[in-house]
Amino acid sequence: MKIKIGFILSRPFVPFLNELLPNVESYCDITQLIADHNSEVKHLYMAHVNEMDCFIFSGSTFYQSLTKKIGFPEKPCYVIDDFEGNLNDIFLHLLLNDRQVDFKRIFIDTACSFNDYLGLKTFLKPSDWPHFNSIDDKNINMDELVSITLAQHIKLHEEGKIDLSITRFGTLVKILDDLGYKNVYMYPPKEYLFNFLMQIVSSFHLKRSQSQFSGAIVINVHNVSAERRESITGELNNYFMNLAQISGYDFIFQINYEKIEIFTSYRDLEILTKNFTDSTTLKAPMDQYEGDIIIGIGTGKNVYSAKVNAHKALDYSSNSSDLYFVNEENILLGPIGAEVLTSMDSIPSDQLQYFSNKFHVNHMNLQKIIALTKLKGTTKITGSELADYLKITLRSANRIINRIEENGGAKCYTEKLGEGRGRPKRYCEMTFIKEL
pTM (2 decimals)? Predict the structure, then answer.
């Protein structure tokens, strides 16, 4: 299904867009909505907002005019950079028509200090520099920028300093035409606009494909009596049912002995976790039941693969009180909500699996060790550092390190911290990492 785009553009932009349409019509449907004045933009937007997936504006003035009147638009909006212009084509055309063209008698309103005068000061000799826009504040209000820019055009023509105006603002073309001032509208480069459109199309296709993916939440109630498990399961069911009713999530519940499986859409799971960065809502029950439950979340191209991935995340969550996520590409992410997310393959490489078998250490813990060494910038770690990072006891961390050392994957030694500063500290060089 093609993306429907409402293109709100100035009249001078129309022939340029028409040339590009044959190259993009297989990717998207573009409806041209022509505005001769800023005051027409709101009407064009409101008349078509229900038909379109998004809107593109041929300049910032149109977009700012809309937001001033309606606030934040309901549909995604994209704005073509006012300061992207295909000046090379214009110069080439001028030179082909007149080899003696006088560049210093031209005013280029998109060339100003904050875009380094479009590179013209290095391209031309100072004696040939055209007139540049005197605006030097990139954050100036667009309406004010256009008004000041128009005044510069008129003043330079009236004073006889220029023969030609080159403008990127479509709404100025008719005004300059009516005044009898020669002008050229500066289109953006075709490559720029084509890539601009393709990025929008790709973004929408990605969102649509993701919305068709499935999401799953798996909750395990463990280490409690059967009576306590039944009570917690009922309370969790009520918690998530209430969450679905309040927030409009489309949840399907399935209770399987110790586990609650909740199936939903990728989009709902994404919203629930704020793009898989916030565990607050999901961890609320974990905090309430103090270790009696663990949760894993997963996404996949169908319900079954989302469920499998959620169970993979659950296995890793069982080693800590944190929440982990396995996505449709089998990448493990977590802890969700942490400042820094660790990304790991939930399916280990052959070499990593080899080391896991050799050391008798879970491949996830090996990936965590690798992540810790990257964070530290050294393959040398201590038991206490690993314990903090894995959120396990020092004894468990040392047991993991000892297994790796005993099976040839690490070299451990002690370093004295200095005279009178307590016992020597034990460091372990994770030599196996160099072989990956």
Answer: 0.47
d(CA 183, CA 174): 10
What is the distance between the alpha carbons of residues 19 and 35, in angstroms, rounded to a whole number? 19
Query: Which range has the worst mean pLDDT, 3-7, 95-99, 278-282?
Result: 95-99
Tell me the pLDDT tens digit for each residue of 263-288. 888 888 888 888 888 888 887 876 77
In the predicted model, what is the mean pLDDT of residues 339-364? Answer: 76
Own/partner pairs, 406-414, CB within 8 angstroms, 24+ separation: 407/358, 407/359, 407/360, 408/358, 408/432, 409/355, 409/358, 409/359
What value, to the nearest 5°, has the Cα angle with vertex 291 and ends 285 and 294?
65
3-state secondary structure of 241: helix
Query: Which candidate, 366, 385, 375, 383, places its Cα nearest to that of 431?
Result: 366
29-59 residue pLDDT tens: 999 999 998 889 999 999 999 999 999 999 8
Query: Alpha-carbon distance 419 to 423, whole Å?
Result: 10
For 263, the token pair is 């199936």
Indicate whether 225 and 198 sit together in one domain.
no
Residue 104 tokens read as: 């210093």
Q: Which of 246, 110, 129 is nearest to 186 (CA)?
A: 110
Sign of dihedral through CA atoms 124, 125, 128, 132? positive
Last residue of a domain, one of 206, 234, 260: 206
Percent of the chain past pLDDT 70, that is, above it, reads 89
Q: What is the pLDDT of residue 41?
A: 94
431 has pLDDT over 90: yes
CATH, residue 300? 3.30.70.1230
Backbone phi, psi, residue 185, to 5°: -85, 130
| Rama region for 413: left / alpha / beta (φ>0; ψ in -120 to 50; rest) | beta
Distance in angstroms (rounded) separating the CA atoms of residues 152 and 107: 9
Q: Pick the last residue of a domain from 124, 152, 187.
A: 187
Mean pLDDT score of the chain = 84
CATH number at residue 77: 3.40.50.10330
Q: Do 213 and 299 touch, CB atoms closer than 8 A?
A: yes
- Here the tokens at position 65 are 């005019």
